[in-house]
């Protein structure tokens, strides 16, 4: 056997194997590799989309939280204003009621004082009439008049 013929046969077999591999084996392997690369690229793109969606969701949550905090602080401020207004109205009503009660008490005291004056006037008038009557019944005497007047003073 000749080394050239063996080498030539080996070259033919080698090229036949290369041709067979390139024709039948290599396309499915390349196709599988391309599909795998496409799946990896798709997974990476989905991961990026998910990351950006997550960031957007985080931003939206932060905005909603800020808005909620603003609404809560506004509600608290409104409640405090309303409470202050209610307290102020209660103070005003209490002041009005105190003024009304004071005026009523003054009017009642004035009426009582007027009644007491009337009673006192009636008593003084009765005493004056009684004193005049006793003066007119007794004789006109200066010492007796002085005694009667002093007795009348003591009764007043």
Automatic annotation (TrEMBL):
The keyword Cytoplasm does not apply. One of its GO terms (cellular component) is proton-transporting ATP synthase complex. CDD domains: ATP-synt_Fo_b (cd06503). It holds the Pfam family ATP-synt_B. Residues 47-126 form a coiled coil. F(1)F(0) ATP synthase produces ATP from ADP in the presence of a proton or sodium gradient. F-type ATPases consist of two structural domains, F(1) containing the extramembraneous catalytic core and F(0) containing the membrane proton channel, linked together by a central stalk and a peripheral stalk. During catalysis, ATP synthesis in the catalytic domain of F(1) is coupled via a rotary mechanism of the central stalk subunits to proton translocation. Component of the F(0) channel, it forms part of the peripheral stalk, linking F(1) to F(0). The b'-subunit is a diverged and duplicated form of b found in plants and photosynthetic bacteria. F-type ATPases have 2 components, F(1) - the catalytic core - and F(0) - the membrane proton channel. F(1) has five subunits: alpha(3), beta(3), gamma(1), delta(1), epsilon(1). F(0) has three main subunits: a(1), b(2) and c(10-14). The alpha and beta chains form an alternating ring which encloses part of the gamma chain. F(1) is attached to F(0) by a central stalk formed by the gamma and epsilon chains, while a peripheral stalk is formed by the delta and b chains. Belongs to the ATPase B chain family. This is ATP synthase subunit b. It comes from Neisseria sicca ATCC 29256.
